[in-house]
Each structure stands twice: as C-alpha cells, then as structure tokens.
C-alpha cells in the first residue's frame, strides 16, 4: 500500500504559501493513493547527492521536494520552496538512517563537507572544546556519525553549534544541543534516543516495509507524520499552523499516550515545551479509552483561569473534530466548577467577593476592632496560606498547625488572637452572604468528600503551579483515587500567584510518574537564553518535595537577540514603543501577532491610547476593549498561556517590576518577601517567554533590578 509521510518543515512552509499555491499542493498530493512515483511527475536531478530526493513542480515559481524511496509506492513530502531554493536544497541533501534511533535524517552533505574541510584547514585553537568530557564512543552510541566527529570535536561554543543547526542531521543536532545544554549522556540517551527506540517496535509492526527508508519514516515520530489517506492529508494541510496536533515529539507522545498510569501522573517543563499540548493530547487519549457507555463529560480538563480554559477549549476543538468524542471532555476552570457545585447545592447564585482591596480593608477594620497589631496583608496571608491551605477548622487545629513557609513565629497567645480575627472575618462574610473564591472551593471539596460517586473518571490539570491547596483538595475529591485519576501539567518557574503546595501532603503522589520536557517549540534560542538568565539559575521547588531547574532546557529555533531599550521618561518610552510596533506592522506582522505586556493596567491604557493615535488597532485585555484582531495589550498576569510573534514588555522600571505593592514588606515577613520577589521575577519571565520571534524589553529612568546583569 502506498505510504505518504509529511515532514514537519513541509507543513510549516506550506503554511506560509499563498492560497492558490496551497490549492495546487492539495491537487498534486491529494490523490497520492492512486499514484506511483511515475504518475506524480517527480523530476530527477542531475548529480544529486541522493537520487531518491526528487522535485515536483507546484507552480511557476514554487517546487516541492519529495523523498521517494526505492520501493516505488511510498514518498515523503520534505519541502515546498521557491524554485531555485528547492533545487539547491534537493541537490545538496541526502537521506540517511540514524545509527542510534533508526529514524530518517536529512543532511546537507555539501555544507557538512565544507565545514569539515574548514576544520582541517583551521589552525589548532587554544580555547576549551564543548564536548571534551564526552568520549567518542559515547557520541557514537548517541548516534553521532564517525565522519562528523572531527567537526563536532572542534566546537568550542554553543553559538558555533547553533550555526550548524541547519546543516547537521536533525537528530544528531538534537543530541549535541542536549549535551551542550548541560544534560549528561545518560539523560540525552533517555530523552533524545531511547524515546525513538521505544516507538520503533510498535511503529514497525504497524507499517511493515521492505524498504529501509520507508521503515525509517515510521521511526521518525515528531518530525515525520505518516498519513492514513487523502482525508488526513487534507485535514493536516487545512490547519498548517497547528503542527502540534500531528507532530508530537516522542518525548511528548510517550507521556500523552501512555496507555495507563497507575495513579496521578505529571508533566513539567519550562515555558513553551508543550505541556498544554501534552495535556490536550492526554485528554484525547483518556476520552478514547472510555468505555462505550461512559457519559459525556467523564473527563475534566481544567486550569487556573477562565481565559486559559477558553484557550484549552479552542485547542480541543482543533485536536478533536469528532464532536461526540469531544463531548466526553468538559473544559472549565477550577473556580467556575467549584462555584457550580456549591450553587447547585445551595439552589442559588453565590455572591463572590473578588476585590483584594476590599478584602484587605475588611481585615484592617477587624484588626482595629479587635485591637490587634497585625497588618491586613499578614492576616490575609495567614488565613489563605495556613488556615485555608491546611483546611483548619478549629482553634485547636490552628494552634498545632505547621506554619512552615511563614517567616514570623507566633506564640500560642498570638495564634489565639489571629484565630479570633479569622473567625471574625469569616463570620462577617457569612452574615453578608459573601464568599471568596477559595472558600467556594473549600466548600465544594467538603460537599464531595463524603460522596462515594465522583463527578469525573479522569481529571487533567494545566497550569498546576498556580493552584492553591484548597483547589487541589477539590481536584482530588472530583475523581476516585486510582489509575489515570489525575494528570498534571505545570512549571514552578512560572508560578505567579504565590500558591506553593506539596502534592504529597494533599494525597497526590506522582513519584515514578513525573516527566520533564526540555525542548521549547515557541521561543528562539536567543530569547530563551536571555529570559532564563533573568532567573539566574534559581532552583525552585517541584511541588513534590524536590527541586527543579531549567538544565537542558533548549529551543529548536534561532532568531535575533532581545531588544533592550532605555528611555529618559515614560512619554519617550511610549513614543519609542509605538514607533517600533508601527514598524513591525509595516514589516508585515499582523497586529494580532503582537503582544504588549505591562505590570499594571493603567500603563497598558496609556500605551493603547498612543497606538490608537498612531492608527493602530488594539485589544486591551481585562477591559471592555478586548474584541477584534488588534495588538494585544495586557498585564503580565493576563499574558500567561498566550504567545505572539513579537512581544514588547514595557515599563520594566524600578519599583514597578517588582511592583512595590505586591511585595510583603520584609519587616512583616522576610520569607514571604523573598517568595513575593520570586513571584515578581517569574512574572517577568512569563511575559518575556510569550515571544516567538522578537522580544523587546523597555524601561524609562531606573531599570528594574531584575534586569541588572
Ligand atoms: N511537538 C510540537 N511541534 C510543534 N509545535 C509544538 C509542539 N509542542 C508544542 N508546540 C507549540 O509550542 C508552543 C508552546 O506549547 P504549549 O503552550 O503547549 O507549551 P507550554 O509548555 O504549555 O507553555 P507555557 O508553560 O509557556 O504556557 C505552542 O505554539 C505549541 O503549539
């Protein structure tokens, strides 16, 4: 049977073609089942490096490049490029099989020969080499070709390795990038080699092939998708920007499509590593595994905020066209679900107290009334981080409770005073018929705990790092403990709401079922490196008693360095930013592909005003002005989970980043002060890592201390 494979690059290039050319591509390849090579008019080249690489005319100006293995009835769509580029690419490349993964590799033979010759001719360098600590035998075991060793051995910097990205065989580059990013050969073996091998047996069984390359196509998960027929080709080509639907990296696929986990499982990884993508695929897998009689909404896919839930819903629509299957999955944010459960129990809507300012003012009034010398911030934090976090319901339990994580000790007498304040605060809320979000979650969990039936069979959680212990308690109660109960995606480097948890203490044990992703698909290497350097190698908790770092975190893309711009005052910064954004638009960037992140909304409003004055359309998140396709302006919090081609982070000045009012004064609680600082730093990190191609960071006056080298 004819086999059609599509290379990820093909899809990405296809996405950029004009509509009529895209239509031609459909016509040419749409009937591939009926074709053999001869019927497709694949053209042979003169003196190619690999006679199996052919080209095909798409239009007067465009050509496709196809790998046509000798078996005669399978082919792989590799590239679609401008005529001359396609010919040059096809002439210089050769397809080989990686010695470690047995997957297909495409190498730029001509460029590699040239680079190797340059190494021979160059004078012996004195600086230390990138891979000195890795033996030849080890490199070969990881799939590095012996004939590339001289070139690899000569590399001194990551920048030199980056420069070879386009010409090295992809999997060999991946291995080298992993080693250069600090992973041990064992880590690299596990993450970049063994994952492919794991797939091999199953794939080969599914796709028996007598041709070596055809078999290797089946082993190239993540870069090559084998399509079942013309309908699937059409479907893939119809949404070319959503490569994540088809091209899961084996390290992602292994996690998302693991047949069944014995208990809670987790995926972690830096920004843009595809945690959300994995969560979406996991939800699909769980829905597919449900018994036929399982009711709709048996699987819950949930996250922190309403906006993020809307994004997940959109992602599921792309991933699961089958409405009946999609209906098995309910998408809703945790607070909204809690609200619904409590509302149904009470038989009416709840009044939610959302304003943090109002909450603080009530604590203040209460402290005055009771004659207590605690600040509103202290009392509110004590309530949320100790009382609600541990679900303490009596003065006795509070007296004995651990207050680890809080920076000030409280004597028994002072605990009794604080408890009085907590009682007073909650009594006032009760009397006014008001709730805070966390109270609603706590109540929802309480309602569920005695029940033997649970609302869901499986729960998939995204952005898990931001959830409060109370929300975790609810999530735990939504599903009976057992296989595939909870699937958790999160990254503690992006914790921006100050909610620290120990999963284990909440009855969620992921040990032996926790996986880390390290390849970033969103941001360029340059943006990633700069953004990660903001964190200064900070090791954070992993929500499970261990610590987490960004070691081995790397990008598959290259681009320019972040633009850093200083201005003397705010007006100048905004004018400068407006000019730069206008230039992006002039250069062809769609306004909706531009994001502006700010620490507080008022600055966003001022920037929006300036952009509108310059005839640019804007959307201001968190206001009524959110409709349309304009430039997206939002607070750093709102930027969470979003991504844009170009991102400007503006107003990164001292006293705003970190925002003084978001910091617990060190004298109130030194430990909390440090945590708040870390939260502010993570916020800047989150904002910067929203950029796909261009990141611009600006300030006026004194820059944020986080920007100091
Ligand atoms: N295997 C893949 N192939 C192509 N694109 C991918 C792949 N995995 C993820 N992506 C893309 O990378 C980007 C980041 O993915 P995603 O949002 O899932 O990452 P994340 O780890 O959840 O990020 P963050 O933590 O920053 O929110 C998205 O544009 C997604 O479509």
From TrEMBL:
Catalytic activity: ATP + H2O = ADP + phosphate + H(+); Couples ATP hydrolysis with the unwinding of duplex DNA by translocating in the 3'-5' direction
Amino acids binding ATP: 269-276
Keywords, sorted A to Z: ATP-binding, Helicase, Hydrolase, Isomerase, Nucleotide-binding
InterPro entries: DNA_helicase_UvrD-like_C, DNA_helicase_UvrD/REP, P-loop_NTPase, UvrD-like_ATP-bd
EC number: 5.6.2.4
Pfam families reported for this sequence: UvrD-helicase, UvrD_C
EC category: isomerase
Domain UvrD-like helicase ATP-binding: 248-524
Gene Ontology molecular function: any one: 3'-5' DNA helicase activity
GO annotation terms (biological process): recombinational repair
Matching PANTHER family: DNA 3'-5' HELICASE (PTHR11070:SF45), UVRD / RECB / PCRA DNA HELICASE FAMILY MEMBER (PTHR11070)
Name of the protein this chain belongs to: DNA 3'-5' helicase
């Amino acid at each position: 049977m004819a086999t059609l494979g599509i290379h990820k690059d093909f899809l990405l290039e296809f996405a950029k073609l004009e509509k009529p050319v895209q239509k031609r591509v459909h016509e040419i390849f749409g009937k591939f089942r009926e074709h053999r090579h001869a019927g497709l008019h694949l053209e042979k080249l003169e003196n190619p490096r690999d006679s199996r690489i052919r080209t095909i005319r798409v239009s007067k100006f465009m050509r496709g490049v196809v790998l046509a293995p000798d078996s005669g009835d399978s082919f792989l769509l590799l590239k679609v490029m401008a005529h001359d580029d396609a010919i040059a690419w096809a002439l210089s490349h050769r397809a080989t099989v990686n010695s470690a993964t047995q997957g297909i590799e495409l190498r730029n033979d001509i460029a590699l020969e040239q680079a190797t010759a340059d190494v021979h001719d160059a004078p012996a360098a004195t600086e230390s080499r990138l891979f000195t600590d890795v033996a030849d035998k080890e490199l070969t075991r990881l799939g590095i070709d012996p004939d590339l060793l001289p070139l690899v051995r000569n590399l001194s910097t990551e920048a030199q390795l980056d420069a070879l990205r386009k010409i090295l065989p992809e999997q060999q580059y991946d291995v080298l990038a992993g080693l250069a990013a600090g992973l041990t050969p064992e880590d690299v073996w596990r993450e970049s080699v063994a994952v492919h091998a794991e797939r091999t047996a199953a794939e080969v069984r599914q796709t028996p092939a007598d041709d070596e390359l055809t078999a290797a196509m089946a082993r190239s998960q993540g870069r090559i998708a084998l399509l079942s027929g013309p309908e699937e080709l059409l479907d893939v080509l119809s949404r070319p920007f959503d490569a994540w639907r088809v091209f899961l990296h084996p390290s992602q696929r292994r996690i998302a499509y693991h047949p069944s986990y014995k208990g809670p499982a987790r995926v972690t990884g830096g920004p843009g590593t595809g945690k959300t993508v994995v969560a979406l695929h996991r939800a699909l897998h769980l829905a597919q595994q449900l018994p036929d009689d399982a009711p709709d909404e048996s699987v819950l896919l949930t996250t922190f905020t309403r906006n993020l839930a809307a994004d997940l819903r959109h992602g599921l629509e792309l991933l699961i066209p089958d409405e009946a299957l999609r209906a098995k999955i309910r998408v809703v944010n945790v607070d909204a679900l809690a609200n619904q459960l409590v509302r149904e129990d009470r038989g009416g809507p709840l009044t939610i107290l959302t304003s943090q300012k109002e909450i603080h003012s009530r604590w203040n009034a209460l402290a005055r009334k009771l004659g207590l010398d605690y600040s509103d911030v202290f009392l509110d934090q004590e309530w949320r981080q100790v009382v609600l976090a541990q679900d303490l319901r009596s003065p006795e339990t509070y007296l004995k409770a651990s207050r680890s994580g809080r920076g000030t000790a409280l004597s028994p007498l002072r605990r009794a005073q604080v408890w009085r304040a907590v009682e007073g605060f909650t009594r006032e809320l009760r009397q006014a018929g008001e709730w805070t979000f966390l109270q609603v979650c706590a109540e929802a969990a309480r309602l569920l705990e005695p029940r033997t039936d649970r609302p869901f069979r499986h729960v998939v959680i995204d952005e898990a790092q931001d959830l409060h212990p109370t929300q975790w308690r609810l999530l735990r109660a939504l599903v009976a403990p057992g296989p595939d109960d909870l699937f958790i995606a999160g990254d503690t480097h992006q914790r921006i709401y100050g909610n620290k948890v120990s999963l284990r203490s909440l009855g969620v044990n992921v040990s032996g079922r926790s996986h880390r992703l390290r390849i970033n698909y969103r941001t360029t290497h340059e943006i990633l490196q700069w953004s990660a350097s903001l964190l200064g190698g900070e090791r954070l908790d992993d929500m499970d008693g261990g610590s987490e770092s960004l070691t081995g975190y790397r990008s598959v893309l290259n681009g320019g360095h972040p633009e850093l711009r200083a201005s003397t005052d705010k007006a100048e910064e905004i004018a400068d930013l407006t000019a730069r954004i206008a230039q992006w638009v002039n250069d062809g960037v769609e306004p909706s592909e531009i994001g502006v992140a700010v620490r507080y909304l008022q600055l966003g409003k001022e920037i929006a005003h300036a952009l509108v004055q310059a005839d640019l359309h804007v959307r201001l998140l968190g206001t009524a002005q959110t409709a349309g396709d304009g430039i997206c302006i939002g607070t750093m919090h709102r930027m969470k989970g979003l991504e844009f081609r170009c991102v400007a982070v503006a107003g990164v000045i001292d006293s705003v980043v970190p925002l003084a009012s978001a910091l617990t004064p060190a004298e109130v609680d030194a430990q909390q002060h440090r945590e708040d600082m870390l939260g502010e730093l993570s916020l800047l990190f989150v904002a910067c890592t929203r950029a796909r191609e261009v990141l611009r960071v600006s300030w006026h006056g004194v820059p944020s201390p986080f920007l100091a080298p």
